[in-house]
Design goal:
The chain has about 350 residues and is an alpha/beta fold. The protein has 13 helices and 12 strands. It is elongated, with a radius of gyration of 26 Å.
Length: about 350
Amino acid sequence: MTTIREIAKELGVSFSTVSAVINKRRYVSPTMRARVKKALEDANYQPNSIARSLRLRESRTIGLIVPNLADPFFSGLMRGTEDYLGSAGYRLIVADSREDWKRQQDYLASFAGRMTDGIILSTCVASNQQIATIPEVVRDVPLVFVDRCPHKVKTICVLVDNAEASRAATQHLIGLGHRRIAIITGPLILLNAAERFGGYKRALRTHGIPLDRGLVRTGDTTEDSGYWHGSELLRQANPPTAVLGCSLLATLGVLTAIRELGISCPRDVSLVGFDDFAWSLLLSPPLTMVRQPATEMGAAAAKAILKRLRAPNQEMVDKIVLPTQLIMRESTAAPNRGNQTQK
């Protein structure tokens, strides 16, 4: 491989001149810059990124940790992050914690050990005490939370308006005439889950509908959780006429329970879910879903981490909130009062 010194000798210029053109460190005349660039291209010169990282003490790499890459939402978030970072000359390393605290901590420690310049984290389900230890692990490496954020944010957090999204979804069901509306939330220790539950309660309160704790289930964001909670709700003597699933996988689990119980959706029970995805239209029935801007969230998180890198000594505590959209399809309809008893 041709070296900088060899190129400099061929051109009859100093090593520092060629280095300045490559690293854009100081002024070089346009004529000389053009000569150096042509020589670099002719030699097919490839900079040693590892050596450069050691010299400049930066890797130009950002780490992203998500709880479940099999979830289309996190795949979209990853793409948005990668595209934005790529446009800024950064690379992305992605890790899947698989909802495992130990795996997440190991990835955080690896990324913080100079493998990356900054970390974007969508935390796995954990206790407040566990989440409070994250800053100790990442130390002085810039950190941005995305989607799943701690209740007490001490850094930048990118999320959607979860409360409004859930309120709008519940309002849609109330507008159709539903009163017995069940909800399957994620762990309420997560800010997005707590906010979605809050939006649901707000919609009920606005319309004078008492909160029925028998219609509230707290799941773990998995399809199995949605299935078992959905089955339990729909087997009640006076079952709900509508269900709001607060994650994609939980919603799909409820839909499986509906089919196994031989219940018609939406004739007997309406279903609304979160995290719209490409093949929602292919399901039977096509699902009414809250669409979250996953790629935009990823891009916003990438922009935020780069902002922190450029101002490392500036304390940044902020919430970046993006809007959602309720996509109405065929899984919601007015309640079948012949089959259900409304309270």
